[in-house]
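User: Second chain of the day. Same drill as before.
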Amino acid sequence: MIIMIMYDLATILSEKIFSGSISSFIINLVLAAILFVIGLLLGGIVKIVIKKILEKAEVGKTTKKSFVNLFLTVIKWSIYLLFASLALDQLGIPWITKWLSSVIVVIPALVGSLILICFGFAVAVYLKDVIEESKVLQWQILSNIVFYFIMYIFLIFALKTALISFDNNTVNIILIIFTSVISASVAFWHVLQAKKK
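Assistant: Same format as last time:
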C-alpha cells in the first residue's frame, strides 16, 4: 500500500511538473502536512479531555478500564483518520480518500454495536432476574423466552449498526442467515438439555 501511495504521489508530481502547476501542488502538499499535524495534535488533546471528563464522572467505577481505553482509542483514531483523509484529499488521491472514509465509518459502527450488545445483555439479565423473582406460573420458560428475545433484538440492532456501510439487501441476507443459525443453535441446545434431564 505504501508503494502505491508513493507511486501515486510521484505520478501526480510528474503531471504537475509537466503541466506547469508545481506551485499549486507544493501548496497542497504543505496544506496536507498541516492538516495531518493538526489531526495528530487534536486527537491527543481530545483523548486527554474526554479521559479527564470520564474520571471526574467516575465512569471507571461502573465500567472496566479496558472498555474506557477502547472508547478513547477509537475516538482518537477516528480523528486521526478524518484528518489523514482530509490531508490526502488535498493531494488528490481519490482511491485512498475513499478507503479512509469507509474506515472512518466502520470503526465507530463496530464500537456502537459492541455497546448495544453489552446494553442488551444487561437488560436481558435484569428482566430475567425480575421474572425469576416473581415466581409466576412457568417462570423458567418465560424468563428464558424474555432473555433470548431481548438478546435477539439487540443483536439485530448491533449487526445493522456494524454493517452500516453495506447495502440493505446484503444486510437483510446476513440477518436472515444469522437468525437461522441462532434459532437452530438455541433449539439444539435445549434439545440436549432435555435429553440430559
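Residues 1-92 form one domain.

User: Great, on to the next one.
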